[in-house]
């Protein structure tokens, strides 16, 4: 029978409505929540429901009222919705064509789990979601997206489920495609909430997914001004056992897919906001800190930020086309600002296995959101021939072990912005890592000066040795700089080792080509008489291209899971063998006494130790990434105990508590098109705790801008110098990085800038940065806790402030409105 056209249309619409209703999830709690400490806790089933929303006519408003044990629900007639980061309003507010209420729990479904003087933690036992009410402001954050601006059509059904789910899962099916990642969530897996219980500080539960074989225990705890979310190792189930797989295969008459977890995100949409109000931003740890503004006019795109904390693990770099070209992440942090509220997230347990993910609105869905993704398995290249050139991509079968946690610090009053986030991170560094205010050595800053001793020149048959600064010539450089007014220097001698700066391995004795051990001792004594410190650069212990120190690449090199020895492009991009962390530890521990005998004031570590963090699957020296971090920290501690002060180049946050100064601190981001500017988050957190400098001034792309940026960020400029003329570096491996180093070309300029920076920053060496803001386009103000303000003008015309002037491309120190 032929149906009329209008009946056909009616049939299709009815079918679509049925499909839509079937995709909506409801929750049924099977038992009452037990008291803390009871063995059997409540069990919650996530079931496919019949709850249906008519999206074309779904117009609801929030209810007014207060219920015992829940945050207050208030009506917002003007906006018709709630905002989780502003008020403790009900999350059940609805606008036209809006399915928000059908997807996320109402406020009256939450019950009090724990509270203190500042915060209250509420949990919905049926979904595992939670709400944090800030008693200081009456505002709240939710573990799912904020209601304001919800637009149903801007979120696909897949993303709606991801946003509903407290846990997002990446997994690999080893019996299907060993090289392919699949994505799911606890809703799609019809997870059951088991062993739910209240604890002294929050709640604990397990998401059990028997069909796929996963069980993920989590815990949420309330502290003074933060909430910690944790994935617990104990009880973690990563796929079916062999017995369960055999039982399934016997029952289903087909092979089990053997699914294993590759990565997890826990409460990934905590603090997520739309861009409707354009009143916030995401903070990401790119460079010193980078903002992604909430913008309505952002075009739809696939751009987002995803970077490994502490940089790539090069044990998984072989034949890996997806290695990042962004700057490595040095801090395990991210942040969200929304209106007059902000949170700082610090990745705590398992930071070395974490990635920071930040997505602006319209990149994946309509929300701006940021989270941490914890890696449990990584893709690697498995060779299938002896030359290790042919093979296939797969994932490691053994997963990374241990708890994974994030601490969310809720900022209140004062500075709910990146300045406040950085100040809270500074507090974490002081209270948990033991960093203390520096004790200034008078009112003069110490200028970081690197001296390049020697390098090798490429030859047709073999390389030749090129001395660039002998120890006696180094004395001349120090004498001249001191005479021109540079009162204090922290001198790092680089390229002192056998073969110069491009040779790695077998450092001692100091190469005779620049003066040997005796010459180095004499130089250090001379520098001390002039009032300067001297450290030796020891960053090259991470690499070996000489075979010295008893190193054999096949035996002692860092290896991946396919037994491939890993090489790393450094300085002039020539690939150099990475040393196994345990082999490096053995060699460096043996050399500590040799450094001490030279009378050095410590070591400068970097280029590897403290900045490159790699797993090692070499069976002779095997180390997980967590163990490699521990080795690095142990060596840093030994260096401090044996030799005294340690400088570090481009160091990760886990190294900061051991160092007395940081070099190579970034002042720019990685120039992604979707970001909206760099901020001195790292510098605000560190100033007054650790003196820091950025890259070398004399190799900067734009020297004038470099100096202004350093002044704005409270950073001391540094210089790389040689006694040899700059043209003498032609043909050396160093030319790639150091192309203007002759000290005679720079001595007057160094003295001039030392005087200017000393005058501006000399009396704030131990002071905290408490303010940073833009006064106008291209004009920025940095404020210290002693009241000093420094205004930097990047423009080509003067800036006139309240009673002061800042000349074009210059800075001014402002006191009480006057420069």
TrEMBL record:
Q: Where is the signal peptide?
A: 1-30
**Disordered: region residues:** 34-94
What InterPro entries would the database entry show?
A: DUF5696 (IPR043751)
Is Signal among the key words of this record? yes
What keywords sit in the KW lines? Signal
Q: Where does this protein have compositionally biased stretches of type Basic and acidic residues?
A: 34-64
Q: Where is the composition biased (Polar residues)?
A: 65-85
User: What protein does this entry describe?
Assistant: Uncharacterized protein
Specify the species: Paenibacillus albilobatus
